[in-house]
Write a structure and sequence with these properties.
Layout: E1 4-9, H1 11-14, H2 22-29, E2 35-40, H3 46-51, H4 53-56, E3 70-74, H5 94-111, E4 116-120, H6 127-132, H7 147-164, E5 168-169, H8 171-175, H9 181-184, H10 194-210
Length: 239
């Protein structure tokens, strides 16, 4: 059976299978090697994600399920909503966010000890963009997320990765190193533009490569057309 990579996260993950999305690009990249499986849940924070783990990942090695090669865990953008602003019901305190991440990691590692679990920090926030594109009524006319708050959650995510010995993509820091990141990478101050999706895709591919998962290291599913002898095509399927 072809191995799998799971993408677990909030709306930035759920939207990743859209046209030009980073998840769709990852599926295309590994089209003959790996099945990329989407598990994205718009609006979810780590508190909710921790509650639904057994429903999202019901299989385990003990029950005959094959361990995935990797799982990306990409939460924090909703946890970082400010408590007293619109969308405050999504807020999770930073300490609880860290606890929830540890719980998610522990669950995945208990099921699949050899699976690479890759944490991804929330992206930076363009507060002007959030004011222009609110999702619910915003009577205070103040952004429900700030870049400073997102940075605190990104720092917490990196800390959990380091203490757990896990790879991490510090998207909050890396994205801000790009000129005009606010508009180049974020279409509404939070969600990704095509360039933003490309940026995340490239970061994920690079991190998977660091973990030993690349086109060069993974076997191809069934013979490539270039490996089929025109004079004896069926020979390739007897290997």
């Amino acid at each position: 059976m072809r191995p799998k990579i799971y993408l677990f996260g909030d709306s930035i993950t759920e939207e990743s299978f859209g046209d030009g999305g980073w998840g769709a690009s990852l599926a295309h990249h590994f089209s003959r090697n790996v099945d990329v499986v989407l598990r994205g849940y718009s609006g979810y924070n780590t508190r909710w994600a921790e509650k639904v783990l057994k429903r999202v990942f019901p299989g385990s090695q003990d029950s005959g399920g094959e361990a995935p090669l990797a799982v990306t865990v990409f939460f924090g953008a909703n946890d970082a909503c400010l408590l007293l602003r619109c969308s405050g019901f999504l807020h999770v305190p930073v300490d609880e966010y860290k606890h929830n991440l540890r719980s998610i990691v522990s669950f995945l590692k208990k099921q699949w000890p050899a699976t690479r679990v890759i944490l991804i920090t929330p992206p930076p926030i363009d507060e002007e963009g959030r004011l222009q594109f609110p999702y619910i009524e915003n009577p205070l006319n103040q952004p429900e997320r700030t870049n400073e708050a997102a940075g605190a959650f990104a720092e917490a995510c990196v800390a959990v990765a380091r203490e757990s010995g896990l790879p991490v993509i510090d998207l909050w820091t890396k994205m801000q190193q790009v000129p005009d990141w606010q508009k180049a990478h974020l279409r509404d101050g939070l969600h990704l533009t095509p360039l933003g999706n490309r940026f995340v895709f490239e970061e994920v591919v690079a991190k998977l490569r660091d973990e030993g998962l690349s086109l060069e290291s993974l076997p191809v599913d069934l013979p490539l057309i270039a490996d089929i002898d025109p004079n004896d095509p069926l020979k390739a399927f007897h290997k």
